[in-house]
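Schema walkthrough. Field components (list of strings):
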Amino acid sequence: MVVSEGLHEDAAGSSGGQKPAPSRPAAPSPTASASAANPPTKVSVRNLDFFYGQNQALYGNQIEIYANRVTAIIGPSGCGKSTHIRVYNRIYELYRDQRATGEVLLDGQNLLDPAADVLELRKRVGMIFQKPTPFPMSVFDNVAYGLRLHTHLDHSELVDRVEDALRRAALWEEVNGKLDKPGTALSGGQQQRLCIARAIAVEPDVLLMDEPTSAIDPVGTAKIEDLIDTLRENYTIIIVTHNMQQAARISDYTAFFYEGRIVEFGPTNQIFTTPHQRQTEDYITGRFG
Amino acid sequence: MIDDATPIPLATLRPRSIAWRRATDRIVKVLASLAAMVGLVALAWILGVVIARGAAALNWSFFTRLPRPPGVDGGGLIHAIYGTVAMTGLGTLIGVPIGLMAGVFLAEFARNSRWAHPIRFSANVLMGTPSILIGVFVYALIVMPLGHFSGYAGAVALAIIILPVVTRTTEDMLNLVPDTLRESALALGAPRWKVTLGIVFRAARSGLLTGIILSVARASGESAPLLFTALNSPYWSASLSQPMGNLTVTIFNYAMSPYPDWQQMAWGASLLITAGVLSLMLVSRMLLRESRRPW
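Field assembly_structure (string):
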C-alpha cells in the first residue's frame, strides 16, 4: 500500500546531532520504482493514526519525507491531508479532543514522544497556512517575531536577518521602505510570502504548507510556486494542495490520500504518469466518484 | 394540495391583492419607525432637560468648592466628583484585570473544559443581578466587619459590577480572533501565554478596550451599590477608608431635598455624570469603528 524507501541511515542531511532511531520497524515492501536514487529521509512516519474525539481520521499512515525535496500531498476534500501534516508540528494539540498515535521520526527522533519539547520542535518545523495570517503588527515585526522568540539579537543583527528572510521569500523588493507598515496592508499574495519569510527567518529544517495558494490569485500563486522551487535547496517542504497541476509542477514526490489512508506514494512523475493504484489514477484523471 | 401530476398553472390561480401587500408593508414600516422614535425622543428629551437645567449649575465653584448649607451661595461638589472618580478608578483597577484574566481563561484555556460553562453562566447571572444586591453583599462582606462605611467598600462594589461585563466582552472579543492566527504564532514555537498576550490581545485590542470602557461607564453611573458601601458624605475625604461623597448618591439626596439651590446642584451633577458616561460611550464607538478591519 505504501511506498517506503530510504532505509539507509538518515543522518547525512540532518542538522544538530540527533541520533538515528535505535530500531525501526520494518518498512512495508517497497515498490519497484525509484529505489536506489532516493535522497536521505528527513521525516519518517510510522503507523500514524489520528482521532478527532471518537472519530478516526488517519489510518496507519506510513511515509518517508526526503530531505531537500518537495513532497506534495493530494487527495479529495476531507481525506486527511491537512490532518496528516498538522501532526508534524503537533499544532493539533491546541485542540483538546484531537490526538495522534504512532511514530513521526524527525531526523530519527519521535516527535510524538510526550517528552519531546514542542517549542523546540516548532522551531525546526515551520508552517504556512491556507489563508495568510499576518500578525497585527508591522511587516518588520512580523518577520522578527520568531527571531525575537528564539534568539537574543541586537537590533542591527535583527534588521539584517529580517531583510535576509524577506529577500529569500522574494518579498524584499516589494516591501523595502515599507517595513513599518502593518502586515495586513499587503496584498494577499504578499501576505502569504510575508508568512513564508516569517517562517524561514527562524531557519527551520522542514516547511509545512497547507494549501498555501488556495486563497491567492494566479499571479501571486506563480510567485509562491517559484519561491517553493528555490526554497527546496535549504528546506524539506511538504505541501498539501487541491490543485493537481500545482503538485505536478512543483513537487518531487507525491502522496495520494483517500479516506485517511495513504493510497500511493512515489516520485511525482511516476504518480502522474503510471500510478500503480486504480484509485490514484481515477483521482488524477478526474474520474473520481 | 399537492398534485403530483401536472401542477395548475400559476396564472390561473386567484392572485393575492398587491395593493393589500403594499399597504401592510407600509403599516409595518410606520409602526417600526414610531417605535424607534419613542426611544430616540426619550433620549433626546432626557438629554435636553438635563442640559437645560444642569448647565446653569455648572460654574467654577461647582468644580472647586465643598457644599454649603441651603441658601448659602457658592457651594460645590468637588468632594463628590473626587469620590466618584476615585472609587470608579479603584473599582476599575480591581475589576478589569480579574475580568480580563477570567475572559482569557474562558476563551483560551477552558474552551471545552467542564469549567467553562458554569463560569460563563455565573458571569451572566452576575451581570443581571440588581446592583442594590451587590451593594448589600459588599455591606455584609466589608462594611459590617470593619464597622463603618468606606470608599474602599464602594470601590469593591463597583469592581463587582465591572467584573462580569469585562469577563464576557473579553471572551467574546477573543473568540472573534481566528484560530489560524493562534496556530501561526504557535507554529513559530511561541508559548501559549506569549501568543495570548502578544498576538491575540493585539488583534482584539480595540474590542477589549471597548468592553472595559463600557463597563467603567456603567459603574460610574451606579448609585445603588454605593448606598450601602461608601454611603455619602458632605465632607472632603482624600482617603478611601472613610465614607465618601459621590455624585450619584448626592443627586439622590439633593434632588429629594426641599431646597431649590440643592435641587439645582443635583441637576448640575446629573449633567456632569451624563456627559462623562456619554463621552466614554463615544470613545468606545470610535474604537470599535477603528477595529473593523481584517486581522
